[in-house]
Amino acid sequence: MEFKKRNGGPAMGGASQAKKGKMNTEWEDSPSQFEEELALFDEMEMEAESGEGQAGHDVIPEGDLFSADLNPRWKRPHAPPLQPISDTLIFQQIDLDYYLGSAVAGMPGQVQGKVPIVRMFGVTDSGNSVCCHVHGFAPYFYVPAPNGFINAHLAEFQRELNSAVLKDMRSNKDNIAVTVLAVDITKKESMYHYHGNKPLDFLRITMAMPRLIAPAKRLLEQGFKFANFATQSYQAYEANIDFEIRFMVDSDVVGCCWIELPKGKYRLREERSEGQTVSLCQYEVDVAWNHLVSHPAEEEWQRIAPLRVLSFDIECAGRKGVFPEPEIDPVIQIASMVQRQGEKEPFIRMVFTLQSCASIVGSQILCFTQEKLLLQSWAEFVRTVDPDIITGYNIQNFDLPYLLNRAATLKVTCFLLRFIYFDLFVCVCKSQVDKLSLAPEDFIKTPTGDLFVKSSVRKGLLPEILENLLSARKRAKAELKKETDPFKKQVLDGRQLALKISANSVYGFTGAQVGKLPCLEISQSVTGFGRQMIEQTKQLVESRYTISNGYQADAKVVYGDTDSVMVKLGVATVQETMNLGKEAADWVSSHFVPPIKLEFEKVYYPYLLINKKRYAGLYFSSNAEHHDKMDCKGIETVRRDNCPLVANLINTCLQNILIDRDPDGAVAHAKEVISDLLCNRIDISQLVITKELTRTAQEYAGKQAHVELAERCVFTHSTTWSSSCPNLYCASLNPYWARAKLRLAWNENDLY
DNA sequence: CGCTCGGCCTAA
DNA sequence: TTAGTTAGGCCGAGCG
């Protein structure tokens, strides 16, 4: 479940990112509009419930344990009987992992000892939960077959490798008898480089369990001998593929896709009492890996099952100034909401509190006199609600571990919830050009001198992946256009964005030094092409858009970085600049080989170019009458290693310059701020930003810290004027702690 | 004072 | 066990 793995919330930088335990000493929020809405909601809820004969109160008297009978609506929908012989089982898979377990009778694969079993958790259209055990899939990798290797050698190779791996084991807790399940010969080509479209013999080596892949690879690479073949090193291929991923690729399963188990092709585990089932799911089934059907996420298979999402947040009674510790500080409140995927409102809002608590609008409250009962009861609540997804702000790093540790400290029995806690390119070497007798028109040389064969000779793997991604995005965009349901629209928009990001990231991982598919030639060639294209664009634009060609001004490329160029076209209005910019982009594109093209993106007016990777400007994209925003790149205003005083000052000065067109006003403002600083009229919190400062302030805890910090800041500050450049104004502050150097400099020539 | 280096953060 | 990249600006520290 990806949602659970991630840290929630915005990045705030540094160690203080970790969620703080909250103190319950003060209530700072005043009644808000949100609360009024909740009150309204509550009234409606009351009315609805009284019709069903529900209790009207929302605060449950102290001491009551949560009971599943409290509200039957909270339970997952009843699961109708399932007949594997006549019923097809279809569910959306939301989590996938594997474990080592005993083979199940009637399922394929090894029978003896522990075998790897893939486990999928999912939800049906009717909201019933499914745990599906998938049998018979084993991990494998490849090595090139040595010269002279024939089928008759397979058995000997397998036997030798098997005993080598067995001998290599330090202990054999699982009593593994067989390590190498199979070896067969297949025709394959290495993805790296072009080999003249001639697949070679590779040995596909299937192991009994995933953790045997690494030792087998190591033994083969170190030098392996069998039969009459000399000791040699075998290079392993695809030995670094995670078992889950291997399974997903081979069975066409992708994240959160829909899975179909055809009738008659799976078994239902029924006897709960005999311990057959291992999960709390309503249906627990076994299936052979080659019998499950995975549906590509297109059309109706893009829908989302009615997943149950629990979000929660805990409050601890911390000691003053100390981060709460589960061994000491009690959990005093757990607020939980549960919502079904696709519904607008949560159908459960529950607050579990220690001691009494005022009524909270919109929520039901359970009060406890003992913390132990609170935790026990909440665990029971979660089991009843049976969420598919558990989420919350940083719960993975704070709330969940805290609850588990606290429950252990208090010796709460049955707290341990059954959380799923989730336990190329052508695929050329220069020396090969002669060998494979490639004609010059068969390959191209990139700006970095690397050679790639053209797709007419052999289409690479990466172009294939990219084409698939881009065409899938095209389809998603087309569906988005005709879709009217706003919710489905969101899903489709997310899908097309994800596909775009995936396509862009293809380049990224070829540059990774340690990764699944490193290829420096590709990443360097990509950047090389980028540089070349910028250069070409500059030549083209500056040669065509000139006064002598009848244009208003000589165009000038003012700035460019990696994949973009800023052109000063010299026309009077933003609208004219947009028109000319679009025309120029199309014209330049016509000089590039498709699908490469130059796109018009935006107009900056005015544009303050401070340095490479540092500029600001008013950003116009669609409407020439109004700028969308003041865009700042790389400047103090967007950097987090400056105190707010600096960012605010620079921001105001930029507004003066760009929006008000008043550079003198900017200087005046900067002088005023410096003067305020000198006269100690600046709020110290404007200077507090660095981690060190924040920490120091916490240590002092209280006003005393502010006084001390203020004294030190004023004591250490100094100002300097630059005599050489009247437009450069500089003041440095507190060199010891806060990086608070103010700098404001511009040159009229830099303003476009 | 000027230079280089490492640390940090951003652009793309 | 776990991992996208390079280019580049600015600051502070250390050195001669």
UniProtKB/TrEMBL annotation:
Major location (coarse): nucleus
GO cellular component: delta DNA polymerase complex
Locations listed in the record: Nucleus
Reactions performed catalytically: DNA(n) + a 2'-deoxyribonucleoside 5'-triphosphate = DNA(n+1) + diphosphate
Renumbered residue ranges of the record's region Disordered: 1-34
Cofactor(s), names only, from the UniProt record: [4Fe-4S] cluster
Domain DNA polymerase zeta catalytic subunit N-terminal: 96-135
GO molecular function term, any single one: DNA binding
Domain DNA-directed DNA polymerase family B exonuclease as annotated: residue spans: 235-412
Range of residues in the leader sequence: none
Enzyme Commission numbers on file: 2.7.7.7
UniProtKB keywords: 4Fe-4S, DNA excision, DNA replication, DNA-binding, DNA-directed DNA polymerase, Exonuclease, Hydrolase, Iron, Iron-sulfur, Metal-binding, Nuclease, Nucleotidyltransferase, Nucleus, Transferase, Zinc, Zinc-finger
Family the UniProt entry places it in: Belongs to the DNA polymerase type-B family.
Protein name: DNA polymerase
Species annotation: Sinocyclocheilus anshuiensis
